Amino acid sequence: MAGHHILIVEDETDIAEILRDYLVKEGYKVSILENGQKVIPFVRKQHPALILLDIMLPGMDGKTILKEIRTFSEVPVIMITAKVEEIDRIVGFELGADDYVCKPFSPREVVVRVAAVLRRAVGTARENRLSFGPVALDQDSRVVTVKGNQVNLTVSEFEILACMLARPGTVFSRARLIESVQGYSFEGYERTIDFHIKNLRKKIARYLPGRTFIKSDYGVGYKLVE
């Protein structure tokens, strides 16, 4: 995905510059912001392809920034955090993060994650339209509807739903969803699928109140049911 514009929001200059150098080497265009107050105006004007967003920032914290971004954009966001407690990850995913990395991290790992998220965001031109019951997904336009109502999904949510819609009724393990959706797997990542599923259920339930569309198969994974 060389040439795409990546925004790094990080107040630790050394970390930001290392990430920039690795990403530039891969052919990306990179911008750096150190103050949270500058992020929203920048995103509205520049429309970056992906954001690497630190949680702890001066001016405005990363979670507040992400919440605001999700009111007007589905741009992929990878959270950067020094906090490894599960609650921080849960909050990030509930607000619409696509991925996260914990400090200290390998810059190469971050580059891999950036490439994987961008591949899912950009996708390839496909004509196939997937549907099951009241839910329909167009892989070309990347539009999802529930009973005719358009539902805005993050990149990760879209790809998880597309994977499951391709084989309704099939139980997908967390590991299988990660492999299908992310294209890679790092230790500790399987739990993030639960957060994305929770968000998907909430968005679909808005138009299917009282109905179960994504069912848990406890100890195994998830499947679509009518």
Folded structure, characterized:
The chain is an alpha/beta fold and 226 residues long. It has 2 domains: 5-122, Response regulator (Rossmann fold), CATH 3.40.50.2300; 129-224, Arc Repressor Mutant, subunit A, CATH 1.10.10. The protein has 8 helices and 12 strands. The protein has helices at residues 13-25, 39-46, 62-69, 86-94, 107-122, 155-165, 174-181, 190-205, and strands at 5-9, 29-33, 50-54, 77-81, 99-102, 129-132, 135-138, 143-146, 149-151, 172-173, 214-217, 221-224. Strands 2-1-3-4-5 form a 5-stranded parallel sheet, with helices on both faces. It has a 4-stranded antiparallel sheet with strand order 6-7-8-9, covered by helices on one side. α6 (155-165) packs across α7 (174-181). It starts with a strand and ends with a strand. 35% of the residues are buried. The mean pLDDT is 86.
